[in-house]
Design a protein that fits this description.
- The chain is mainly α.
- Helix content is 72%, strand content 0%.
- The protein has one domain.
- Helix 1 runs antiparallel to helix 2, helix 4 packs across helix 10 and helix 6 packs antiparallel against helix 7.
- It is globular.
- It starts with a helix and ends in an 11-residue tail after the last helix.
Length: 256
Amino acid sequence: MELLTALLLCAAVMIVLWVWQLRSRRADWVDAAWAILIGLQAVGFAAVAGGSAEKRLLGALLAVTWSSRLAAHLIQRLSGHRQEDGRYQAMREHFGHRANVFLFFFFLLQGLVAWLFALPAWVVVNDPSPALSIWVIAGVAIWFLSLAGESLADRQLAAFRADPSNRGKVCRVGLWRYSRHPNYFFEWLHWFSYPLVAMGAPNQWLAWLGPVVMLVFLYRISGIPYTEKQSLKSRGEAYREYQRTTSPFIPWPPKN
């Protein structure tokens, strides 16, 4: 029952947000709402779950800490811009007069995906085993590594953009030298922590939806395609050279 309630809540929030963007022209706030919804669902699931106290606490902590960091980063970034993020501008340009219809279904899809991404936390908090196994330790270690990597990538990009002398240039600083999207990579890596923590739990296979669905979204739907389209538009040949020499996703030494 709690899963259906959570799904309906996600849909309702996204419909309200879609109505708001009709006047504000700021569809990019859906990103922050998406992150917040996952954390809220994790707290709700933990409150009513039948798992051990240890797994309920751990599942909620992992999801809420991740959700809070990402939401705070997105809110800070979105609040600092008067215009809509370039990815959503590219979507509007691509769909033209049908853009709001597309965004309606896109927002509903984001609500569905927020629900799907809360399922790994639901699996963890319903795990009856309190054991601190090697799988739990490995999952928490990956969680720390991914959170640190994503935070570092975000700080490096923000510092690069804050320097006026870098306007129109491509960020190749730190992790961005080895991947065109290191923030996306560590975001994807983060989702491996839940199936590891939930290893052996009932419905454990649902926890694998996190890394699978995230990879599809990053590569095919709302991540890399629109980000790179906007970067090519704003940086031109410099970004094409970056594409030729730098890994699109997994950090890897650049080509000469």
